[in-house]
Amino acid sequence: MSRRMAVIMEKQKLITRKSFFRIGTTLICGLVVWIWHRLSGVQTERENRLEFRHGKDFPMGISYFEKYYIFRNDHTVRAFLTKCTHAGCRIGTNTGTILQCNCHGSQFDAETGNPLKGPAIKPLQEIECRFDQKKGQWVVRLQPFGKTT
Questions:
Q1: Dist. CA 125–CA 105, nearest whole Å
Q2: 52-144 adopts what CATH topology?
Q3: Beta pairing partners, 77
């Protein structure tokens, strides 16, 4: 080895294998978290833009779908998300107009979305449900009631 090469190598600071893997792991984890964050926002945005269309005749009572349900009585038609406000589990139908969370047993009034039995204390989230006169269909959008994008 030439003297000049020896001087250059002496001045260089070498990184240890442990430090190299630590830095590499941190960068990879950061990249994965960033990608996950970006994709989760896109999914939520897509879901909020989703529209579901149904025929004009709904049966009285509860019409249950995976992400939401529609409640119809003589006076109104309302839609609510089927996501429990306690821990985010999906709720299922129970008896009559009572819906129950399968995870922790919270019960909700299907007509209003209000909790009847805990541990949930917040009502179910109401979503947009309107009748499209031109097409003669009910339109349900997975976004909070009253908000428009």
A1: 18
A2: Rieske Iron-sulfur Protein (2.102.10)
A3: 72
Tell whether the model's pLDDT for residue 116 goes beyond 70.
yes
* Whole-number Å distance between alpha carbons of 74 and 66: 24
Decide which of 6 and 129 is more confident.
129
The pLDDT value given to residue 93: 67
Q: Which helix (H) or strand (E) holds 22?
A: helix 17-49
Its sign, for the CA torsion 119, 110, 102, 146, is negative
Strand 91-93 and strand 51-54: the pairing is: unpaired
From the list 103, 105, 144, 100, the residue with the least C-alpha distance to 125 is 144
Mean pLDDT of 44-64: 69
Token pair of 17, please? 């294998």
Q: Range(s) for CATH 2.102.10.10 in the chain?
A: 52-144
What is the per-residue burial (b if ≥16 Cβ within 10 Å, else e) of 54-78?
Answer: beeeeeeebbeeeebbbbbeeeebb
